[in-house]
Amino acid sequence: MKKASRLLILSFFVLLFSHSLARVVYAIADPLSLPNNKFGVHILFPSEINDAASLINSNGGDFGYVTIPIQAGDRDLDKWQKFMDDAKTLHVIPIMRLATENYYFNNNVWRKPEPSDILDFANFLDSLKWPTANRYIIVFNETNRADEWGGETNAAEYAQILSYASDAFKAKNPDFFIISAGLDNAAENNGTTSRNQFTFMQEMYNAFPDVFTKIDGISSHSYPNPGFRQPVNVLSRRSIASFRYEKQLADLLADKDLPVFITETGWSKEEVDQYIIASYYKTAFNSVWSDKSIVAVTPFLLSGTRAGFSQFSLTKENGEHHEDYKVLKEIEKVKGEPLLARTVEELVGSQIRFIPRRDFSNHPQKNPSEAVKSKVVFAERLVKWLLKI
Q1: In which band, very low, low, confident or very high, does the pLDDT at 357 lie, cut at 50, 70 and 90?
Q2: Total structural domains in the chain?
Q3: For residues 39 and 68, is the Cβ–Cβ distance under 8 A?
Q4: How would you classify residue 63: left for phi > 0, otherwise alpha for psi between -120 and 50, otherwise beta?
Q5: Residue 293: enclosing H or E segment and its boundaries?
Q6: Structural domain of residue 107, as residue ranges?
């Protein structure tokens, strides 16, 4: 009887201890607190991962990044588990970008997502075995453009979807790392057709003041605009440095330091000679993209000839590589060491910084309405200043 009582008490403490450990285990890791290979590339198809790995993990690199879209109707478990398995074998960190599909009678417009899409994505992506502890998710694409949001921009709707996505994914598994959509940095305020990225972010905040606190990072499409042709030393809000201005506003609205994922960037070969583009990439990675807040830079696009993006493609139609690919491969890289598994043994005594999910139930504000109002006014002033740059 005494032996049974001791076992019962011991079981209770084991369960209690395990629960406390689980609370530590289920937290995303700060990717910038670990050795990080920020080199990456944007791909469109899982079959491209081998060529991507040889590029991003070259010249000393390991565990580079790939950004890849996954459409709402593409829930092929075998296909995507093979992609995750290949990523594990090849030491590639996947960044999954959620997407819907074009309307049947209008191929130029992407369907506006529904909450049910978010639930389906969360359930499906949680069923996969990921290669890294952090599960990077970008919630849709360039939502400040009408053709990417059902034909009409609506910052409030996107903020609601983004907020819901954070809740839904983290309810399935807190290891999901939620990243806001990369916005078109060339968009102007033109009614409901397009919105400047800073205006759009401000409108998101005005509709849902806590939306930026619920994300773990921001995606930036830091293209050399206008025209995808500006020199590498042009560092305006519409250039390859646009991430700086977007982060400045996002950090203000989130009241925290958000890491940056440049998931699209690149020069057009229809506008700039490929040898000049190659030199631009080398300079950019050694200067403006050496910013310590950047987790990954995944230029668009590894292979774009099949999808009509040959002007941005690093690979020729015959499979050979352009000069920008060759230069990117030659740049010296870092051996990344992301967190792969979360065992008790690995966590005890580790120097890894974990980011807990924030609790908003007891936010220390004596007068929340006045605090929000003050923040809105300051953010609006910042937006106006950014628009003048």
Answers
A1: low
A2: 1
A3: no
A4: left
A5: none
A6: 28-356
